[in-house]
Amino acid sequence: MESNVSTSSSGPRSMKGLVISIISLILFVAIIAFAVHESSKATVTVQVDGEEYVVKTHASTVADLMAEQGWDYQEHDLIEPALDAEISGNMTVSWKKAVQVFATFDGEEKTIWTTADTVEQLIDEIDLQVKKHDKLKPSLETAITEGLELNYESAFQVELISDGEERKVWTTSTTVADFLEREEIELGELDRVEPELSDEIDQETDIRVIRVEKVTDVVEESVAFATVTRKDEKLDSGKEKVVEEGQEGKVAHHYEVILEDGEE
Fold first, then answer.
1. Which residue in 4, 44, 136, 180 has a CA-CA distance of 20 to 30 Å to 32?
2. pLDDT score, position 15
3. CA distance 8 to 168
4. Residue 67 DSSP SS3
5. Cβ partners under 8 Å of residue 240, min gap 6
6. Per DSSP, which regions of the chain are E strands?
């Protein structure tokens, strides 16, 4: 009787120990599996606009890594190595986000997405040849920022005739008035210019500044004197006496003369 009681009391304890052992084994295997899983991850350093992030990943490509991390990128962004590059341990991925620049080229407006650091790099990126007399704002050294406004005007030559001088002048002006202002050519009250100030100019345009002045010429003409005769009872009949000698008179004629570039 005592032997039977002893056998029945040890059964539940053995079952409980077995369950605990199984659970422990499962936890151990899970921990080992997790450790193996984590240790198999590649360590990748991601540089984003100057900041660094270190991530561990099982992603197979750079594109998978970006998606895994929830990073949205644009087609204009610069990502190196390329999105289809395979992930390897201890690699570095550089991600430079593109910014939007509003550009005007000879009056034509364009929107440009770029990862350039300066205006000079942007000019090289779009293969724009800026010549000596061309006009570019802002300067080549200016840093690229979001929403930057870039203006480029290509220069051309026009023929200028002014103040007795004829010369070729490089310009980016659009009208005659703008050209004269940039060349610091002032017009007098009577001066005129060909073509008209409001006319647009191009490389075929000849600009002539005509200096106009009004002068007054005075021309004197001689006028014969008149003879006045009066009767004098003291003189014998038929005789004449000169009382006062006459003198020729002068008449001044005033003429207004218009001179253009010194010629009447």
1. 44
2. 72
3. 119
4. helix
5. 229
6. 42-48, 51-57, 78-80, 91-96, 99-105, 108-114, 135-137, 148-153, 156-162, 165-171, 192-194, 206-210, 212-223, 249-260
- The Cα 93–Cα 42 span in angstroms is 13
pLDDT in tens, 44-77: 999 998 889 998 888 889 999 999 989 999 999 9
On the question of pLDDT at 176 being above 90, the answer is: yes
Non-local (6+) Cβ contacts of 72 within 8 A are none
* Paired tokens of 85: 């590059």
Spatial distance between the Cα atoms of 255 and 264, rounded to a whole number of angstroms = 12
What H or E segment, with its residue span, contains residue 38?
helix 2-39
CA distance 64 to 57: 9
pLDDT: which is higher, 169 or 31: 169
Spatial distance between the Cα atoms of 110 and 87, rounded to a whole number of angstroms: 37
HSE value, Cβ hemisphere, 13 Å, CA-based, for 85: 15
Q: Which of 181, 179, 205, 208 is nearest to 193 (CA)?
A: 208
Q: Which amino acid, 51? A: E
Q: Check: CB of residue 241 under 8 Å from CB of residue 235.
A: yes
* Residue-range domains of the chain with CATH: 42-96 (3.10.20), 99-153 (3.10.20.90), 156-211 (3.10.20.30)
3-class DSSP assignment, residue 31: helix
Give the whole-angstrom CA distance, residue 205 versus residue 91.
61
What tokens appear for 219 in the block? 């021309």
How does DSSP classify residue 189?
A: S
Radius of gyration of the chain (CA): 50
